[in-house]
Amino acid sequence: MKELLKAVFLVDLIKGLAVTFRNQKPSLIYTEQYPKERPLVAERYRGAPRLNVHPDTDETLCIACNLCALACPEQLIVVGAERNKETRRKELTTFTYDVSRCMFCGLCEDACPVDALELTQDFELASYTREGAIWDRQMLEEGPLPTEYKH
Amino acid sequence: MATSTTFLDTNELVLNMGPQHPSTHGVLRVILKLDGEKVMGADCVIGYLHRGVEKIAENRTYQQFAPYVDRMDYVAAVSNGLGYCLAVETLGGIEVPERAQCVRVILTELNRIASHLLWLGTHALDIGAMTPVFYCFREREEVLKIFEKYCGARLTTHAFRIGGLQYETYDTFEKDCHAFCDWFEKKVDEYEELLTTNRIWVGRTKGVGILDAEACKTYGVTGPVLRAAGVEWDLRKAQPYCGYEKYDFDIPTCANGDTYDRYIVRMQEFRQSVRIIRQAVDSLPEGPIKGRVSKVFKPPIGEAYESIEAPKGELGYYVVSDGSTQPYRLRVRPPSFVNLQALDEMCRGCLVADVVAIIGTIDIVLGEVDR
Ligand code: SF4
Ligand code: SF4
């Protein structure tokens, strides 16, 4: 009898609809209006790479030890260095990083002994060409310029 | 059976389902043999997502290979990472500190919730219940946020390293986990309200795709599918790893082994995972997070097999070392791949529309099936 009444009055349907309406509260809506509203990614987010420079002198922090290139499973980092005749120290000349092959695993960042290479919170890495995804030293130091979207 | 095979013979119709079918959860092609609406057999064609992960392992150092395992079962990347790390740690005889083990348990259980949520959402969607998928993804978002804050990635997390962890927990980690547990328990009630007694849901799932305990064991099926058939087998209890013996939880089982029972088992697993997370967060010890592993890690010559209870079943990693920095051979025992074998058995005698429900209920991820 109870079962029949339940079936006649569509109890399960009403229960289900109650859940639906309960979830219409604006605080439970998660959709982000992406280009208008940029998501705030976590502090540890592993996004676009950056080669850090000294904040005062603008000199690169990288000591050209090549550890990041060795740590990378995809072998996509190429560090070019030259030995300075006077100071007898290795100095960084070129640094390329192929973003298109990178899987943002963070191993290179962990390997760097001086925190020169860092994966940052930037996540917009699209490029019109394949070559555009290969970042050189200048690009890595300056970082990508975020695009302003007009609408 | 001697059947004539002229094209005029209309007894059996062969139908391709997939690889682009939306409810094959990726790129699975199923060749269905039909007698009218009835399914007489189902052959799976796999390999569309094959990337040769096992071969890649032979050309990477042990540490370098860790991010690749995330890409097999990308829905449960943390579990994959755990399985791989455990195998390599056994191989190299590395001691993992208590704190690292505890954090590992928390993250893998969170990942189990995330994986089951994705399963529930898509499975319900396949069967025709549109609503749960939105709720499930919303809750999954919370788990992914915890992952993002902890390790900086949401899906392919690379959260664990050989020997322990790379990242210390963030400041509000414990609070976030507790908040998630409290909130999520209510949400599980909500899903049950939507589905458990829903007549359409029950009608579409009860008695569909039955796989009894005997058949499960024959096929080597593990995970919720096996437990729904009434076998109390969970590697977290049967051969505890990562200190699972310290936590108090039950193994949910059912008796009939049909699609509905598998749903019930997974719903119960949500609650058990929440229980484990609470206990683990409360007992999180202080201490180091990484054991002693040299930078150039060379395990001794030998082999190791470690298996864990991944959200989908037994996930095993078999590693052979020749004493160098790279594995000589690596073999994965993926739960999805093994469980998928039973599809033929489960589909026989069902209707075409049920095939979708059955594929959903096995809970496969094609990245793991094809590797
Ligand atoms: S994040 Fe990983 S894949 Fe990318 S450059 Fe660094 S080590 Fe290589
Ligand atoms: S590991 Fe750091 S310091 Fe060494 S080459 Fe790479 S970026 Fe430079």
Report on this structure.
- The complex is a heterodimer of chains A (151) and B (371).
- Chain A is α+β, with helices and mostly antiparallel strands.
- Helices cover 23% and strands 16% of the residues of chain A.
- Chain A contains 5 helices and 5 strands, in the order ααβαββαββα.
- Chain A starts with a helix and ends in a 9-residue tail after the last helix.
- In chain B, the strands form 3 sheets. Chain B has a 3-stranded antiparallel sheet with strand order 1-2-3. Chain B has a 3-stranded antiparallel sheet with strand order 6-7-8.
- Chain B contains 15 helices and 8 strands.
- Chain B is 48% helix and 13% strand.
- In chain B, strand 4 and strand 5 form a beta hairpin.
- Chain B has 371 residues and is an alpha+beta fold.
- The radius of gyration of chain B is 21 Å and the shape is globular.
- The interface between A and B is medium-sized, with 26 and 30 residues.
- The structure holds iron/sulfur cluster (SF4) (2 copies).
- The site of one iron/sulfur cluster (SF4) has 13 residues of chain A, from helix 3.
- The site of one iron/sulfur cluster has 13 residues of chain A, from helix 3.
